[in-house]
Design a protein that fits this description.
Layout: H1 2-19, H2 26-37, H3 58-64, H4 72-97, H5 106-116, H6 118-126, H7 130-145, H8 149-162, H9 169-175, H10 179-196, H11 203-215, H12 225-231, H13 236-261, H14 265-283, H15 296-300, H16 312-322, H17 333-368
Length: 394
């Protein structure tokens, strides 16, 4: 597997990413950085067009400004390399989180699985910052589990300074009562915003123009329920019904995880984080397929004996939002287009259904057998050595 994994990385970085694509997330970021360094307006995007827009907050603008110090082409290549290195470091941290080494068979399989996926491939091809955010997520999870609260909050806050996409992870922090994490998670982006604000020519344009756009849903490049609902012209009440129904399933799943698994730290943190992030992508105003990168820790829980994704429906779902396959068909135009546009939405939806059903089935079985006091794991399941045993009666 090592040659296959390494050659896949080389292909994705030196061929796919360098070639680029019509979708270019890097160009607006570079132009904004250049404008910032030259003291020109930054938040000038025309939201009437579907081209990628510059959407980072002032704190993110401050962080990415050095990109424009060199010319656009070399800057883009450097950004691709930085993201690729960040993803490889995240891969290593993910291995260690689950107590695997680089010498294990899991190492090349996981590395290949990550780089062959749509989420990593398009992050590199579109030249997005997702790889760096993934590294921040992995450092956050590592330090959270090690109880290095201030460091965990600081790295999470650094991701908030660029994107708020990992904001749901604060729910896990609150559930674990690691309050110090909140201090640095809030302080870091706040301080960076205070530094960036007077350096921008048009900081209020972010508030008045960009922020409202971020809070709106759109009917293009949007795999959230509301996005596909608008694209296919579904009645608004039906769209809301689906969002509420999935919201209820997510709430019940999270309650069961908290009630019966919060002391099984690795399983709880990674599973709850995955459920929260999937819910955000599916139920929020914007969900794009390459956001699924942040679910790698959840998918890695398959190696734990009490994993909720050790079943074939879960991996049908994962195929939907991870596979790089295109379902557009020259023969079956309408069906192929629908499959292509809906695969991510259906994948996220099915995964939440699977988690809800697995946890619900475990709970009902344990209640029926009178063993709720000892937890809801099936009797045949033994605790993974990677996670500490939960005391009885909790």
């Amino acid at each position: 597997m090592w040659p296959i994994a390494i050659l896949t990385i080389v292909h994705r970085v030196l061929v796919k990413a360098v070639n680029g694509y019509i979708t270019d997330d890097f160009a607006p970021v570079y132009q904004a950085s250049l404008a910032f360094l030259n003291h020109r307006p930054v938040y000038t995007a025309d939201f009437d067009y579907v081209d990628p827009h510059y959407l980072y907050p002032p704190s993110g603008t401050l962080l990415i400004a050095p990109l424009a110090i060199i010319d656009p082409e070399r800057s883009r290549w450097l950004f691709i390399l930085v993201n690729a290195i960040a993803i490889i470091l995240a891969w290593y941290l993910l291995l260690r989180l689950f107590r695997y080494t680089v010498r294990s068979v899991a190492a090349p399989i996981l590395l290949f699985g990550m780089f062959v996926s749509e989420t990593v491939t398009n992050t590199l091809v579109f030249t997005n910052i997702n790889g760096c955010i993934l590294l921040g997520e992995m450092l956050f999870l590592r330090w959270l589990l090690q109880r290095k609260d201030l460091a965990a909050g600081a790295i999470l806050g650094l991701t908030f300074a660029v994107k708020w996409i990992l904001l749901p992870l604060l729910v896990v922090v609150i559930a674990r009562r690691q309050w110090k994490v909140l201090v640095t998670a809030v302080a870091v982006p706040l301080v960076m915003t205070l530094i960036a604000w007077p350096l921008l020519v048009d900081p209020m344009d972010f508030v008045h123009r960009t922020l409202p756009y971020l809070l709106e849903s759109r009917d293009y490049f949007n795999s959230a329920i509301v996005g596909n609902g608008e694209y296919y012209g579904l009645p608004t009440p039906l769209t809301w019904f689906m969002r509420v129904a999935f919201g209820v399933m997510v709430a019940i799943s999270l309650w069961l995880l908290y009630r019966y698994y919060r002391d099984d730290e690795l399983f709880f943190v990674c599973t709850a984080s995955g459920v929260l992030l999937t819910a955000q992508f599916l139920l929020g105003s914007l969900g794009q397929m390459y956001y699924s990168m942040y679910m790698f820790p959840f998918l890695m829980t398959v190696v734990l004996r009490n994993s909720v994704i050790r079943n074939w429906p879960a991996w049908c779902a994962i195929y939907g939002f991870m596979s790089y396959d295109s379902w557009l068909s020259d023969r079956f135009h309408s069906a192929g287009r629908t499959a292509e546009y809906m695969k991510t939405t259906l994948g996220w939806s099915l995964l939440l259904i699977v988690v809800f059903c697995v946890l619900g089935d475990r709970y009902l079985a344990a209640r029926r057998e009178g063993r709720l006091a000892g937890g809801i794991d099936p009797v045949r399941v033994e605790r993974s050595p990677a996670a500490p045993a939960r005391p009885a009666g909790r």
